[in-house]
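pasting for the record
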Amino acid sequence: MNSTPSTNKTQAAITGVFGYVPDYVLTNKELETMVDTNDEWIKSRTGISERRILKGKGMGTSHLATKAVKGLLEKTNTKPEEIDFLICATATPDMVFPATGNIVAHQAGLNCLSYDLMAACSGFLYALVTASQFIETGKYKKIVVVGADKMSSIVDYEDRQTCILFGDGAGAVLLEADTEGNGIVDSILRTDGAGATELYMKAGGSVHPASKETVENKEHYITQHGAVVFKHAVKNMADTSAELVEKNGLDGDSIDFLVPHQANLRIIDATARRLGLDPEKVLVNIEKYGNTTCATIPLCMRDFEHKFKKGDNLILAAFGGGFTWGAVYLKWAY
């Protein structure tokens, strides 16, 4: 069992969470009219029933993220000028530059340091751990971490392997200092660039700039080698979560909740089994939103916030393209 953390150590604690998803619901039944697939096949292999899609000309990831950040500030009674730093985790920035975080900070009325962090589906965890360092050192007092993606902007709706998986959404958390033992206790983050071309978007960067050919060849959409990605996701997400749990003296009984990246229900189940968790401790909302990439974990915390109690042990876990993966152990602060 985990020993009680020292109360004199400053840790970065989540003191508020908020999420936003667009109104438009893309169901499996509608996808059946677009590609050769069906509702039963999608649900049995992924756990997804529907996903949200951002409609509207000129609206990108910053629209989703700004909605989440503004909602977070209002919910926590935080004034925009109180925020010292904003990190936007995203795989679908509004544009190559400037950073979407800069745009979000401006639209939300913040006047603070802001930038993007890109680690595919692990982006929110990477951003959360990065932000925590600034809280722990005392550099900043209040930080917003927002994970947001408009995945529909890079999905080929003629590719049945990928179009069934992804949706649009955003989730944001407020981080503040805690000296009562709550907050982020430990984390393990890893990468393996050998998996770079197993899950990626080929064109649009400096190696393959946009051209008539890249557009015609559909190289600005997600390319995924599903079997390879699935194998690595199951192993690495489960292994890292188990390593973090063992390192901190936890077990299936002392973990209150697993908050996993919502990519595939089978990956989530494999991680839960590895940790020896009862099903009611595993938080899942993939059926409603699909894979919203950087938004899945904060949206999951938003949906299940009512279940959390101060001092609860939460394990957050993710796997993404790159390859990137990791796990975070935190004690809920409210």
